[in-house]
Amino acid sequence: MGSEGGEVLLLLFMVLPLTREEAVKVALENNLSLRSGAVDQTMALVEIDKAYANLYPKITLNANYSYLSPIPVMKFQMVPNQPPVEIPMGRSRNYSLGAQLTQPIFTWGNLYRLIRMSKLKYELGDLELRRQRAELIRNVRNSYDGCLLAREFLKLLDQTRERLKRYHASIKERYDAGLAPRYDLIRTEAELARNESQIIEAENNLKLAKDGLKMLLNIDEEIELTDEIGSDSFEVDLDSALSHALTHRWEVRKIELSRRLAEIGLRSAVASWLPTAFGAVNYNYKKPYQFTEDEWGGSWVFTIGLSWPIFTGFSKKSQIAEAHLSLKKIRILEELIKDGIEFEVKSAYLRLKKARAMIEAQKKVMLQAEETRRMIEERYNSGLAKSIELLDGELVYAQARIGYLKARIEYDQAYNDLMLALGKEE
């Protein structure tokens, strides 16, 4: 007995209650794509540091040891008829310590352009991460609402089953008393069987909807939805929405940054034709310092150099042409993206408007169906209505209720889509 109680307690702890916004929070914390994007942004910051590093001097230290054998010897005939004087050209053991410092002096702004390009790439990555975040929020909210609709549908079918059981008991009592035809009893039993199959399908749909939401949340625990289908109404002005989207959408800002990046790339391609200047300082400390003395000694070398790529196989010309074409393509895409955003906002706005009208219409239909069902029940209890009218009234109400719930969900999802189309992240 204690074991069974422990299993029940464990199952209770494994169920995670979630509101709509808590689901969004869990998804933002667990989503692997967002985690990967955050790592990419950290890498982009490293690239900015690497770009700044090009401005600083580079210092290199080196140390060498070499053993020379045999040693070259120079012979000089100093005194006639005497053996020549031999002078060794070096020593067997050779040591060398050195340091080199190099510094770019003038690069026509290319180093600063590298820094600007790395910063723009970081901003582009940040915009992409924010876009992914906003899409995830929209998807989680829509998925949560889909789960709510599946749950309400199942709840409605359960309520319908209870009413059908009550109708069946009443009709069977009348049939046994000879007051109702067998057709009415068979029809009620058929509706009960159909209702049972619908409940099984609704349970499966609810499970699948929850599994889809759990995939977005990246969790394995069972979840319990604690929110209800919303009843809020939102006022949206189309002109204001279009203006906001064309200013704040990620795609607009991304294409603007891409254009700036292409312009910098074009200037860099042009500057690659020009000469660059650099400076270098070398210090060498070695032993032997001279051929004849096995002692340590050092020397300095100061260099100022100029590098000019006179001919590179026409690759520079191709780079400039490519940069020009990239900039031209981006300017074309700017117009295309703006047209696409306008269409997306208008579509979402019209969907929202349609869903609002459908809510009002379906609400009236549902209230009328509910009132009709109540009147049929009263007439049936008074013996003035047939059982088939009772069943039809229940079916019409169930369909009207489902239509109203769908309209509510479609309205909330259309609003979520509109917020994403406007470039809003929350």
Automatic annotation (TrEMBL):
GO terms for molecular function: efflux transmembrane transporter activity; porin activity. The keyword Aminoacyl-tRNA synthetase does not apply. Its main location: membrane. Keywords: Cell outer membrane, Coiled coil, Membrane, Transmembrane, Transmembrane beta strand, Transport. GO terms for cellular component: cell outer membrane; efflux pump complex. Residues 185-212, 352-379 form a coiled coil. The keyword Lipid biosynthesis does not apply. InterPro entries: OMP_efflux, TolC-like. It comes from the Bacteria. It is found in: Cell outer membrane. Belongs to the outer membrane factor (OMF) (TC 1.B.17) family. This is TolC family protein.
